Amino acid sequence: MSKILIKNGRVIDPESKLDEVTDVLIVDDKITKVGICNDILGANIIDATNKVVMPGVIDLHVHLRDMDQANKETVETGTKAVRKGGVTTVFCMPNTSPKLDCIENIQRYLELIKNARVDVHIVGAITHKLMGERLAEIDVYLDFGMKFITDDGFDIDDEELLEEAYKKARNLGLIVMTHPEVMSIAPNGVVNEGKVSKELNLPGQPNEKEWKAVERGIRLALKTGARAHFTHLSTKESIDLVRKAKQGSDLITCDVTPHHFCLTEDEVLASGSQAKVNPPLRTEVDRMALIEGVKDGTVDAIVTDHAPHAEKDKTEDISKSAFGFSELEVSLPASITELHKNQGIDLIKVIELMTLKPATLAKLPLGRIQEGFTANIAVIDLETEEIVNKNEFVSKGKNTPFHGKKLKGWPKVTIYRGATYK
User: Fold this and answer.
1) Topology of 3-52+373-384+407-421 in CATH?
2) What is the mean pLDDT of residues 354-370?
3) Does the global pTM surpass 0.85?
4) If you classify domain 56-361 with CATH, what class do you get?
5) 297-351 pLDDT, tens per residue?
6) Annotation says 313 is catalytic
7) What is the mean pLDDT of residues 130-152?
């Protein structure tokens, strides 16, 4: 029997609204007491004085690569980055190589994640090889405990096929996680369409490329009765559409990323290809709309879209560089710094969007610091400011526009099922 006693931390549990300085006792992999504890014989003591004790982060949108993309990331390096970031549960997108669209490939990936030191869930593909031409083997996904389906990295412009996917998801109780992008609009766009694309003479992506896909997805969800989750929203129009849809339906949810609510298209001028991502960084108006969506409850979760790349894939030529960057190791401090420190959003709300809300969406008994629940916990330093150094990332992907930025809210200890990582 192993025991961990976290002493004198500011314990925050979003579900019960607990926010007070107290102790947490862990026995084996369970939380057995939340409250003042006398010294427990044989317990490993973690002094959390002046630290925040919160549930481990649940990230609904990551790319762990591996298999034929092991040069970019492996499950081993990716899950080490997960732990370092205070994250204890992740959902992997299916745009691996090969794609997670059939029993054979899913079983191969399950073997890779079998010994991961965090909870790793697979999200299944909607279409065969993510090509948007015919449905993948969706009927078998429940056998693997899947909760979501997506063609992340792409959207499906064939509305008849997309409606078929929504109907199948409804019948199976799956959630359609849409990467909202009308593929036929500005198919070669690499950055936001606006002043930066003009200054750099690059093809841009207009806001309508995203929001028209959101509009389509909402319509199909309401028509079929399927649950629709829109991931990494980046535009004001998208947030407005989701906000309106939520007023009349509980089928619609969405998430946003730290890079979209922390940064704007101007970061492309400062960081070049390191700031190239899809959807692209947008304008200050869009950024503030996402933050307003967090404040008013339109946004249901914060995710990273962690997308590690080999250095050669993030070339200086933005037009040829890969989309995306590593974010697992900075998602907590980036979110806390911008949303809590800069925008004045209650810390418990920020934590809720990274823990309890995604747990609820995925129907997981996690995201809580309560007696009887699994001991997935992050201990963070809310006040000490540290500078992001991409060279210290444990992820293979050292690509990030956050390099050199000062952030607060860094994880110092991650506890996963009663095992401690520092």
Assistant:
1) Urease, subunit C; domain 1 (2.30.40)
2) 98
3) yes
4) alpha beta
5) 999 999 999 999 999 999 889 999 999 999 999 999 999 999 999 999 999 999 9
6) no
7) 96
Q: pLDDT for 211-252, tens place per residue?
A: 999 999 999 999 999 999 999 999 999 999 999 999 999 999
Cα angle at 151 between 146 and 137, to 5 degrees? Answer: 55
Residue in 305, 313, 346, 381 annotated catalytic: 305
Mean pLDDT of the residues in the chain: 97
pLDDT at 315: 84
Lookup: tokens for 294? 């967090």
CA–CA gap between residue 90 and residue 76 (Å, rounded): 13
3-state secondary structure the chain: CCEEEEEEEEEEECCCCEEEEEEEEEECCEEEEECCCCCCCCCEEEECCCCEEEECEEEEEECCCECCECCCCCHHHHHHHHHHCCEEEEEECCCCCCCCCCHHHHHHHHHHHCCCCCEEEECEECEHHHCCCCECCHHHHHHHCCCEEECCCCCCCCHHHHHHHHHHHHHHCCEEEECCCCCCCCCCCCEECCHHHHHHCCCEECCHHHHHHHHHHHHHHHHHCCEEEECCCCCHHHHHHHHHHHCCCCCEEEEECHHHHHCCCHHHHHHHHHHCCCCCCCCHHHHHHHHHHHHHCCCCEECCCECCCCHHHCCCCCCCCCCCCCCCCCHHHHHHHHHHHHCCCCHHHHHHHHCHHHHHHCCCCCCCCCCCCECCEEEEECCCCEECCHHHCCCCCCCCCCCCCEECCEEEEEEECCEEEC
The pLDDT of residue 343: 98
- Span 4-18, average pLDDT: 98
Domain boundaries, the chain: 3-52+373-384+407-421, 56-361
Residues in the chain: 422
